């Protein structure tokens, strides 16, 4: 059902169809808001797009070199026809009236006119090409290859090997010894405390990850140890260091604004857990 | 004409691609190599590892066992705790560097003559003193019930409760803090309302900014403290709010700033100023001094601590007598306490009687 929006859209479509076939102009129209709710106009646009696509692929029609002369001549004849009746009659009259007219002129003119009519017929057919049934969907399907993204199945077929190759390369690079320097293949995985096992030379082995943090382990100020030998980070064992580490400046400022009459009760709630 | 139908494989394909991506990330994150890359982030070079190995081999079996226990403790940390620990370690390194810079030329030259281990111990003591001072200051500002709970709670439970308390405090108090600070700085009502309505993170940033402004204003009104030049003041003022306040509070802890500086403590009464000045001087007398640490650096740690605590006690008692802020019988009672207990008691008396009248009222309830 055509409504005002449809008519407005069709007008724009007609404007876009003027001039040489240009499918890109119609592609701009395919973003038109009206198409979201109008199946008819969408189909119309798709049909026009298909035809434009087809027309754009046709070669430019070549006009015969003598066409202009002939058209001018025919226009002259038309003018004469309007004034004096049939142009052929006037020509024939001319042929008969003037003795110096070359013989056979009338025949040549008739032959020329016949050729002209044939050309006109051809041109008329060019100006209104009739698409065969089912042409538009076929053209659209062919255009989709270029207009729409490639099908996902095809994408995965193309991309999956690339991704797999990149992943394999990355993992391969990362696990290759040259990347991390000369690493002993018998080395215990980092992060595991190795039980002291005498090596072939009798010297106890030590985990490299322990050596990496040896300076931290040796820093007594970071650790708290009891007489029983238990170890803890110093912030866990010392309340003041714990508060220093956990309360930022902003939070400390807020403490100065705690209301004196309610804060103990609220903190009491907290301490009750 | 209908558009071409959508590809039914599309969701499955996307899912497969996503899975592939995650598998790659998982593989990388769990490879030994990633750990090595992280270790490289700490700038642990092969040469440093070899140097550590050489040092390790000089340690006694007892010492090695001790460090292994620490390493095991470190291994128990989850990723978040490990990150926090690394951040604290980094911050500590910066603090050590700052403490070194604050030493006098003579102290620095004495420090150079010590062994690396002794040097490390001296600097660590000074850093720990500052950190504990800050921790005590924070503790003194906490509500009584929260303080009591923290003192008695198992260490493992402290963090969750403290985080909950901080979240509650931020939610309830940040707008009030913004209002108090902005009013003290003479902001208009509309501007105060705007600041109060900011999202939490921006409101907290405003709290920091306004605190810096207010502290700077108070400092300028009082005149620059002794030892601070216009140039050093300019350097201080150019710091970010966090760094600025950290520095100012440190100067307060050291007794260098002993006026009325402080957020929410903008009273300018002469009596209160005088009380705070006296408190600052007594606190300074109780602090561990670099020259004490340097003098006793050759002693074993327990002996060194005992000797220094004795010195601090002597200096504290002298300061208390000089300022006569306690009655003779109170001084007599203090003198009966052992060194550590005396220092702790004096600290709490200063907190309660000189700087925390509000908390006193609360304690009496």
Characterization of the model:
With 273 residues, chain A is mainly alpha-helical. In chain A, 63% of the residues lie in helices and 2% in strands. Chain A has a two-stranded antiparallel ribbon with strand order 1-2. In chain A, a hairpin with a 5-residue loop joins strand 1 and strand 2. In chain A, helix 1 packs parallel to helix 3, helix 2 (23-29) runs antiparallel to helix 3 and helix 3 packs across helix 7 (135-147). Chain B is mostly helical. In chain B, helix 5 packs across helix 7, helix 9 crosses helix 11 and helix 16 crosses helix 18. Residues 36-41 and 359-365 of chain B have low confidence and may be disordered. At the A-B interface, helix 3, helix 7, helix 8, helix 10 and helix 11 of A face helix 1, helix 2, helix 3, helix 4 and helix 5 of B.
Short description:
By secondary structure, chain A is mainly α. Chain A has helices spanning 4-17, 23-29, 39-57, 67-84, 87-97, 105-127, 135-147, 152-174, 177-180, 208-212, 214-218, 234-237, 239-246, 249-255, 263-272; strands at 223-225, 231-233.
Fraction in beta strands of chain A? under 5%
**SS-based class of chain B:** mainly alpha
Low-confidence stretches of chain B: 36-41, 359-365
Can you count the helices of chain B?
19
Largest sheet of chain B: none
Number of strands of chain A: 2
Order of helices and strands of chain B: HHHHHHHHHHHHHHHHHHH
Distance between the termini of chain A: 70 Å
Secondary-structure-based class of chain A equals mainly alpha
Unreliable stretches covering 5 or more consecutive residues of chain A: 178-203, 262-273
Would you count the extended β strands of chain B for me?
Answer: 0
Task: Give the mean pLDDT of chain B.
Answer: 82
Mass-distribution shape of chain B: globular
Q: In whole angstroms, how far apart are the ends of chain B?
A: 84 Å
The helix tally of chain A amounts to 15
Helix content of chain A: 55-70%
Strand order of the largest sheet of chain A: 1-2
State the major sheet of chain A. 2 strands, antiparallel
- Summed over residues and divided by their number, the pLDDT of chain A gives a mean of 71
Order of helices and strands of chain A: HHHHHHHHHHHEEHHHH
């Amino acid at each position: 059902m055509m409504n005002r929006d449809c008519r407005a859209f069709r007008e724009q479509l007609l404007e876009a169809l003027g001039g040489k076939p240009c499918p890109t102009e119609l592609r701009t129209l395919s973003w038109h808001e009206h198409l979201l709710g109008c199946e008819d106009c969408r189909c119309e646009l798709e049909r026009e797009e298909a035809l434009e696509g087809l027309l754009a692929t046709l070669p430019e029609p070549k006009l015969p070199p003598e066409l202009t002369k002939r058209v001018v001549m025919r226009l002259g004849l038309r003018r004469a026809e309007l004034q004096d009746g049939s142009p052929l009659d006037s020509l024939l009259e001319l042929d008969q009236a003037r003795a110096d007219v070359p013989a056979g002129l009338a025949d040549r003119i008739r032959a020329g006119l016949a050729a002209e009519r044939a050309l006109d017929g051809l041109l008329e057919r060019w100006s209104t090409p009739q698409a065969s049934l089912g042409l538009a969907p076929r053209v659209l399907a062919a255009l989709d290859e270029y207009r729409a993204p490639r099908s996902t199945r095809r994408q995965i077929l193309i991309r999956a090997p690339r991704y797999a190759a990149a992943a394999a390369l990355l993992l391969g690079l990362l696990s290759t010894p040259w990347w991390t320097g000369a690493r002993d293949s018998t080395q215990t995985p980092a992060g595991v405390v190795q039980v002291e096992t005498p090596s072939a030379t009798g010297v106890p082995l030590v985990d490299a990850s322990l050596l990496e943090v040896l300076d931290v382990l040796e820093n007594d100020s970071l650790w708290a140890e009891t007489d029983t030998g238990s170890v803890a980070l110093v912030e866990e064992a010392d309340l003041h260091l714990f508060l220093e580490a956990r309360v930022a400046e902003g939070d400390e400022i807020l403490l100065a604004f705690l209301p004196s009459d309610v804060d103990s009760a609220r903190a009491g709630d907290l301490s009750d857990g | 004409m209908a558009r071409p139908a959508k590809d039914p494989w599309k969701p499955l394909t996307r899912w497969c691609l996503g899975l592939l991506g995650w598998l790659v990330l998982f593989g990388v994150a769990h490879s030994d190599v990633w750990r090595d890359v992280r270790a490289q982030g700490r700038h642990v070079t092969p040469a440093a590892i070899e140097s550590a190995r050489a040092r390790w081999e000089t340690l006694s079996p007892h010492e090695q066992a001790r460090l292994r226990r620490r390493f095991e403790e470190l291994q128990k940390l989850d990723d978040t705790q490990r990150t926090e620990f690394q951040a604290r370690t980094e911050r500590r390194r910066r603090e050590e560097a700052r403490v070194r810079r604050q030493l006098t030329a003579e102290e620095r030259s004495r420090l150079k003559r010590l062994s690396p281990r002794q040097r490390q111990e001296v600097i660590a003591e000074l850093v720990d003193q500052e950190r504990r001072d800050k921790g005590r200051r924070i503790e003194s500002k906490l509500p009584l019930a929260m303080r009591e709970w923290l003192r008695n709670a198992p260490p493992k439970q402290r963090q969750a409760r403290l985080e909950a308390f901080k979240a509650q405090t931020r939610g309830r108090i940040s707008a009030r803090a913004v209002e108090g600070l902005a009013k003290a700085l003479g902001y208009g009502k509309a501007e105060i309302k705007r600041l109060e309505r900011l999202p939490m993170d921006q409101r907290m940033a405003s709290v920091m900014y306004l605190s810096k402004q207010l502290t700077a204003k108070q400092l300028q009104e009082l005149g620059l403290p002794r030892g601070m030049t216009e140039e050093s003041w300019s350097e201080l003022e150019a710091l970010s709010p966090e760094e600025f306040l950290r520095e100012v509070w440190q100067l307060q802890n050291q007794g260098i700033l002993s006026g009325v500086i402080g957020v929410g403590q903008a009273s300018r009464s002469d009596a209160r100023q005088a009380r705070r000045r006296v408190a600052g001087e007594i606190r300074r007398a109780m602090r561990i001094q670099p020259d004490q640490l340097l003098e006793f650096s050759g002693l074993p740690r327990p002996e060194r601590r005992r000797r220094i605590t004795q010195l601090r006690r002597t200096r504290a008692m002298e300061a208390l007598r000089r300022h006569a802020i306690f009655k003779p019988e109170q001084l007599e009672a203090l003198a009966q306490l052992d060194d550590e207990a005396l220092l702790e008691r004096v600290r709490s008396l200063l907190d309660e009687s000189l700087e925390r009248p509000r908390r006193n009222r609360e304690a009496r309830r």
